[in-house]
Amino acid sequence: MPNEFSLSQLWLLAGSFEGDLNSIEAGWQVSPDLYGDNNTRLFTYWTSDAYQATGCYNLLCSGFVQISDQIALGATISPLSGYGGRQFDIDILIWKDPRAGNWWMSFGQNCVLGYWPAALFTNLAEAATMVEWGGEVVNSEPGSRHTSTQMGSGHFPSEGFGRASYFSNLQIVDASNNLQPPGNLNTFSENAACYDVENGYNSEWGYYFYYGGPGYNDRCP
């Protein structure tokens, strides 16, 4: 839909949503307004004042410093998972350099994309106080009904592997830069009839969740 987007990402947060929120974000998104097409694209975002005056996507303002010449921010991701077919993952890791204080991001197993300089942030100067994973859409309520913009695969999490989108191997980076399982893991859906989430744990995926949905449907008018 025009003026809408759908994304899946992780957030590193510190501060208050009332005005001084610091946020580092990365994942994949479909945004016709931003890119001029419906391709699934790798993106980053940051803000230091709750999305008011600071921050931007990718390299559209000074902020994120890209050091890799192998992968472009905003590039189309390929191949994509197919409904009932082969599933593909992307791996994103964000960690803090304890000496310089910069926040670094890697994509895949061996590609360090770049970093957010410590000077961009106030509340994220020391650490994130919350980490979130999930999906988000813009609902412009076309025709006075809920948007049909899909989240994830466009299918509910109850359909499971090969049909619903998922996050797996959820981990956080501790103060010693070691990976740890997340604590106090909670789930939230603004309207489960439109988009939902189901979490779990197993030995292969660790902590994981399925998420998403079609948006507009008989139960989501």
From TrEMBL:
Question: What is this protein called in UniProt?
Answer: Neprosin PEP catalytic domain-containing protein
Coiled-coil features, chain-numbered ranges: none
What lineage does UniProt assign to this protein's organism? Eukaryota, Viridiplantae, Streptophyta, Embryophyta, Tracheophyta
Q: Where is the Neprosin PEP catalytic domain?
A: 1-221
> Which interval of the chain is the signal sequence?
none
**One Pfam family of this chain:** Neprosin
* Organism domain of life: Eukaryota
